[in-house]
Each structure stands twice: as structure tokens, then as C-alpha cells.
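Morning F.,

Quick status update on the modeling queue. The single chain you submitted on Monday has been processed. Sequence for confirmation:
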Amino acid sequence: MSNLDAPASYETLDPSRVREAIRQSPDWCEAAYAAGRSLALPDAFRRARRVVFAGMGHAAVAGDVVRARYARELPLSLSVWRDYDLPAFASGPDTLVIASSATGADDEPLSALDEAGRRRCSALVICPGGDMALRASPTGAPRYWPPFTTPAHQTGLWQVFLLLGILAELWLIPDPGEAVAEAVSVMREAARAIGPDSPAVRNPSKRLAGQFTGRLPIIVGAGILAPVAAYWKLQLNHIAKTAAVRDEMPSANHGSMLGYERPDAVWQKSIVIALRGACDDPRVAARYDLTTTLMLEAGLNQDTARARGASPLAQACSLAYFGDWTAYYTAIMSDIDPAPVPLIHPAWNQI
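C-alpha cells below.
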């Protein structure tokens, strides 16, 4: 088990310097938002009444964050599609399909892009090249990929900001510029507070990684923090190469908590982390408080990670960024190189 306060641990286990990629993430988010606001997009896109984010993994989670932020405030239909083809309602030019793939080869969003063409939907592509770019070109679908290079596991956060920039430029959402600036500022502050140079005694991300050692993390969120819980799971999978589970409040109170009555060996080898913030519905906050009490009475391992910032976007991004560092430290503590993702095999895109 490596020492998180020893510089040699990072030099030995992280030769690809994933830590620097995480440090740069706020800058990439800022640049992606600016890019979204400056893209030359067809005027017809502004007439969209339905937006479908088609993607897998980090791309889908980015769509989930945007959907969660605006689903209760706008008549615009926002949905995320993690499957082949498209949902039945997606048809015609007033449906905007945003297909995303960090490789340009993911089979599911490729299928969605093809189906968008058959149904005469408007389409926009986010990919670096590959088959997706080739299929988008004949249709005239705009394509974007940033000029900076990021590891695959760091594409999720900046895609949130890119989508916000695109939707704002199309006048489909209110101008989020103030919230974007706050979110970037909060993440930059966190880079200083919980980066590798910050000792474990003052670094809650390092301490939480220590609690994950030898346990199954169960990450719980609500509202806009529900997709952040999914983001934590993905980062733990990709960076720390460990299993993780995500859950959602308040639905967890109608299922998962029934297992608290039997704190057997499975629970003793698990830890429940609640992602909480001021953006939580007060009724959900009350449920969290009661659930925490029940878990403590049952002797379950549990902890809380609290969001920073005033806006819902800043709170979501502060916790997502906290999750980046926690997954990274979990890898280092377990003597795992955080960079490679060997089991996501290209052959799976040939099915």
C-alpha cells in the first residue's frame, strides 16, 4: 500500500502523469464551454423541441448532468440514450441528436447517428474522428472535438461544459455563464486544496480513498448529484480499476435500505458515501439524515462528501472533481497505475 504523502509514490505508479490531467481539468472545462458558445451551428437547430444525448460511459453521464440541471425548469425535452438506434419519439428536424464518442468508434452512438439520419433528425457529433466522423461528414452534421488531449476518463467533465455552451448558443437554455465561471473557480480551488501536495491530514479526498481500501464503495446522490454518483462509479472503475456501485435518493429509501436490517459480511466490506449539497431538495435532505441514523444504528460503514459552491452546477462539478481525485488516490494506495484501461476492448465495437 503506497503512501499518498510520498512524492515517490506518484512518480513510480503514475508515469503517464494522470495527476496533471486531473489538475488541468478545470481549464479544459472552461475552454470547452467557450468552444460550445463559438461553434457555427445551423439556425434550424434553434427550433429543436427535443434533445437526445446519445453516448456511453462518460459522454452519457455528461448528458445526465445537463438533463438533471434543466429537466424541472424548461419545457424542452432532454433525454440520454445509452442504447442502439433511438427512442421512438426522436423523429424529424425538431429533434436534435447529439452523438458523442471519445474514440469515434462506440457502436451504440454510431447506431444512434445512423438512425438520426434515417429519421431526418438534426444531428451534431462530438468525436475525434473514426467511423463516427466518416458517417457524419456526408450528412453535413457539425462535428467538434477539442484541440487539447485528455485521457478518456477526463472527457466527462469537459463535455458537460461543451453541452452547456452548445445549448446556450442555440438559445435552448438560459445563459449559464455565471454558473460556469463559479464551477470552474470551485474546481481550481479544489485542485490546490486536495491535490497530491496537500497532506492527508488536511486532504479529505486522500482520507476517503483510505476508507475505500478493501471495501466496495456505494455512491449515493440525488437530483443533479445523482449523475455525479454515476460519475464517481465510472472514475473508480476507470482509474482505480475497482468495482463500485451507485444509488439514487430518494428511491434508495424504497429498496436499498431494506438491506440495512441484515448487516452481514457484504455490508461490512462496503462503505456508503452520500453526495450532498445545498442543491438537495429539503425533503431529500431529511431522508439523508434519517438514513444516516439508520446506517449508524446498523453498524454500517458510511460517510458524506459535501458539495461546494452556490449554484447547482458548481456543486455538481465540485463533487465530480472531488471524485476524480478520490479515484486517483484509491489507485495509488492500491499500487495501481491509474492510466491504462485494458478491458474496454475495440472488438466490442464490432458486435
